[in-house]
TrEMBL record:
<keyword id="KW-0961">Cell wall biogenesis/degradation</keyword>
<dbReference type="Pfam" id="PF02388">
    <property type="entry name" value="FemAB"/>
</dbReference>
<keyword id="KW-0573">Peptidoglycan synthesis</keyword>
<protein>
    <submittedName>
        <fullName>Lipid II:glycine glycyltransferase FemX</fullName>
    </submittedName>
</protein>
<keyword id="KW-0808">Transferase</keyword>
<keyword id="KW-0133">Cell shape</keyword>
<comment type="similarity">
    <text>Belongs to the FemABX family.</text>
</comment>
<dbReference type="InterPro" id="IPR003447">
    <property type="entry name" value="FEMABX"/>
</dbReference>
<dbReference type="InterPro" id="IPR050644">
    <property type="entry name" value="PG_Glycine_Bridge_Synth"/>
</dbReference>
<dbReference type="InterPro" id="IPR016181">
    <property type="entry name" value="Acyl_CoA_acyltransferase"/>
</dbReference>
<keyword id="KW-0012">Acyltransferase</keyword>
Length: 382
């Protein structure tokens, strides 16, 4: 089977996304508007000589300094049949199209899982001094389809990327997810999800309710006042937790672009206690995949457990929407209790979910001298 890759309109791209059970929000046309500093293009895969579409992608083009050549980046994409035994038939026309657009290299993030660790395994690993990283711990599940993708990409000349900080890290390879369906496909109930949480999480959810924490979702188009309230708390959180916050304008663009694409795409949540904002979050959903995207919490009144309350409300909302999974996004792979990142996985493991390892990001050089110059430039920046 042979395929053609060609540019499509954002509307055609969105129609393909909407026809899928789930797709990354980073592969929606709207995300290209959020990343306005990049050149963007919607593309589709079609069976050769026909209009039968079998894939889609958002491509973000990052220009080299002083040279009109680009790294073509497909974050958490493209949207393809990754179970195929002939990935080359799909990826070769992609490379040809992007090269014609001026790309010196391609970076993709196949949305395929390679390994999973359930909550019990992770807790055991944290307690074991011999286990310092997830890779030291036997996975609960190995995905054969994910292993085939890794094998095929290697054979086709794609290069796996490092997962340290900076642009080269791209999207997180390890995330934490709460499955909202049983293995047989039936939906879990709220009681079943709650029962899967650890005792501390259940106690904190009850404590928040008893303390009178009120959780609400911003209604209708998200206004400036609600967005500023979220951002003010987010900046406070950034100062406390020592990370660089994104500006308010970034979130305004994100809310407007994703909200215009679908009224159910992005939701803003607040937890208040006696009139004080104690936690705020942004949730995103595409099809049956729901994400906790950004969060903020007050240093004051942490004992009322507003963060647990708002997470539980978002989980309930995802269940009501028929989602397959609630995704708490990135974690590092550390299990070392002395590592400052360990607290993140310990917080998320309390939900009773699982750590999920994706295939990671992969590069294909199209112009080797320029690609080498780019990698040297990025390594010096890091």
């Amino acid at each position: 089977m042979t395929y053609d890759v060609r540019a499509t309109t954002p509307a055609e791209h969105l129609a393909y996304v909407d026809a899928q059970r789930a797709a990354s929000f980073l592969q929606t046309p709207a995300w290209g508007q959020v990343k306005a500093e990049w050149r963007r293009e919607s593309i589709g895969w079609f069976r050769a000589g026909s209009d039968e579409q079998v894939g889609a992608a958002l491509v973000l083009y990052r220009q080299l300094p002083k040279v009109k050549r680009y790294l073509a980046y497909l974050p958490e994409g493209p949207l393809l049949d990754w179970t195929t035994d002939d990935l080359g038939a799909l990826l070769r026309p992609l490379a040809a199209h992007l090269k014609a657009q001026g790309a010196f290299g391609v970076r993709i993030g196949p949305p395929v899982v390679t390994r999973r660790w359930d909550a019990a395994a992770i807790k055991a690993g944290i307690a074991d001094p011999a286990c310092r990283r997830l890779g030291d711990l036997a996975p609960t599940d190995r995905d054969a389809a994910g292993a085939r993708v890794v094998s095929q990409l290697t054979e086709l000349g794609w290069r796996p990327q490092a997962v340290e900080g900076g642009f080269a890290a791209g999207q997180p390879r390890h995330v934490f997810q709460v499955p909202l369906r049983h293995p047989d496909g039936t939906a879990r109930t709220e009681d079943q999800v709650l029962a899967g949480m650890n005792q501390l999480w259940r106690r904190n959810i009850k404590k928040a309710a008893k303390a009178g924490v009120a959780v609400r979702q911003a209604q209708g188009p998200i206004g400036d006042a609600d967005l500023k309230a979220f951002h003010d708390l987010y900046v406070h959180t950034a100062a406390r937790d020592h990370f660089t916050p994104r500006p308010l304008g970034y979130f305004r663009t994100m809310v407007d672009a994703l909200g215009a694409e679908s009224p159910d795409r992005l939701r803003l949540w607040f937890a208040h206690h006696e009139g004080d904002l104690v936690a705020a979050t942004i949730a995103i959903r595409v099809g049956a995949h729901a994400w906790y995207s950004y969060g903020a919490s007050s240093t004051d009144k942490r004992d009322v457990r507003g963060s647990n309350a708002v997470q539980w409300a978002m989980l309930q909302d995802a269940l009501a929407a028929g989602a397959d999974v609630y995704d708490l996004r990135g974690i590092t792979d550390t299990l070392d209790a002395d590592d400052p990142h360990a607290g993140l996985i310990q917080f998320k493991v309390g939900t009773g979910g699982e750590a999920v390892e994706y295939a990671g990001e992969w590069d294909l050089p199209l112009h080797r001298p320029l690609y080498k110059a780019f990698t040297v430039y990025m390594s010096r920046r890091g």
